[in-house]
């Protein structure tokens, strides 16, 4: 059963940076507000993910649902990119960034596995290489220091807080995930010129999403349905009571008996006290 996300609700991304307010009522097949566990690098991503894309197979667990929706989100993002005027530069790595006399950036791109380079002159470089977690805090994956050259905040950006800041600018977006693709499409609505560079051939993502994503979900769905054991989906265990050599198990969908109970609900860190206990 899906959930309704009501207009005016505020979605808090995993990174404590900026909250996003849903602008219209949306239906999602994902129970609860799906976006709260996702990192939103730009305004609207949390809302986009919270919307959901299509029906999620019922035999797929919550982690796979996230993967499934990620594929669908990527498919949507690539589709929108192909309709835009974004210039795609692939497969290239960023080799260096230098400040020009007029304040613009000269970004040198090196073609992957080939002896070919090109220089793009842009006003802004938006780096979207995803996030890394250190000591529980999320930080963007940054350019190497010798490449960034101390230019963060002076043309090099890791977050897109307000698309209007880039109106009539020439922008290079570096990255190949759904965020980079979607961000390029978003910037194309206000920027004078948008380039998207990635170390892989970005347009191959569309085919990868359509074939690999659907295949993964279908195979998992089929495998789970072929189990000889009873399969209880979307079920919460309420009580487990010993009864001789068995257990009486009560769930929100009914009761049954079992010889053994295996708890496989994941792991979490438990802070030790000062004595190391």
Number of helices, counting only DSSP H or I runs of 4 residues or more: 5
Count of beta strands: 17
What amount of the residues lies in strands?
A: 25-35%
How would you describe the shape?
elongated
Element string (H = helix, E = strand): EEEEHHEEEEEEEHEEHEHEEE
What gap, in angstroms, lies between the N and C termini?
Answer: 43 Å
Amount of helix:
10-25%
Biggest β-sheet description: 5 strands, parallel
Uncertain parts: 1-64, 265-277
Instruction: State mean pLDDT (0 to 100 scale).
Output: 66
Total discrete domains: 2
Q: For the largest sheet, list the strands in their spatial order.
A: 5-14-13-9-12
| Structural class by sheet pairing and helices | alpha/beta
- Using the CA coordinates, give the radius of gyration: 23 Å
What does this structure look like?
The chain has helices spanning 45-51, 62-83, 145-148, 178-187, 204-225; strands spanning 3-5, 10-11, 20-21, 26-28, 87-89, 92-99, 105-111, 117-122, 124-127, 131-134, 137-140, 156-157, 170-174, 193-197, 237-243, 246-251, 254-258. The protein is α/β, with parallel strands linked by helices and 277 residues long. The chain folds into 2 domains: 3-82, no CATH class; 87-204, no CATH class. The protein has a 5-stranded parallel sheet with strand order 5-14-13-9-12, with helices on one face. It has a 3-stranded antiparallel sheet with strand order 6-7-8. The chain has a 3-stranded antiparallel sheet with strand order 15-16-17, with no helix packed on it. A hairpin with a 2-residue loop joins strand 15 (237-243) and strand 16. It starts with a strand and ends in a 19-residue tail after the last strand.
